[in-house]
Amino acid sequence: MNRRTTRLRIPLAATLALTAGLALAGCGPEDGGAQLEVAGAYMPRPVTQDMAGAFFVVKNTGGTADKLTSVTSDLSKDISIHRTVGNKMEQVKSLDVPANGELRLGRGGNHLMFMGLKNKPVEGDKVTIELHFATSDPIKVDVPVKATDYVPKK
Ligand SMILES: [Cu+2]
Q1: pLDDT tens for residues 33-50?
Q2: Which among 5, 65, 67, 110 could bridge 94 via Cys, Cβ 3.0 to 4.6 Å?
Q3: Ion ligand 1 residues within 5 Å by Cβ
């Protein structure tokens, strides 16, 4: 595992080319850790300032599972992670992001719940949130605010 030392001897251009090649081939990091990317985020325009929800997909192209453990945002100090069981929702400490898979949040399923909003976002706004994981670095996401009844196209 002398990669760092080896890298220093390779000219910068060669390093960049190598990195690009790896990305195209879809290879994960050398340590086989989780490789996370967030897609399809949206927040339905909240009807009141009391509460908002948000949805997105966390894709993991790495060979190791991770967990979404918490979410922070300027919009609210009280953001919790919920899942839906039957027609009831319940708060959970974390949601699994499977290896080579995805964690899906969506209407009627897993979701984020924001309580006591500092302001009431309107359609077209972007709400910045930061996702925290058990092992991966946090990911910042600009979540677009959509119509209250918005449903993403499949
Ligand atoms: Cu909920």
Answers
A1: 899 999 999 999 999 999
A2: 67
A3: 82, 89, 113
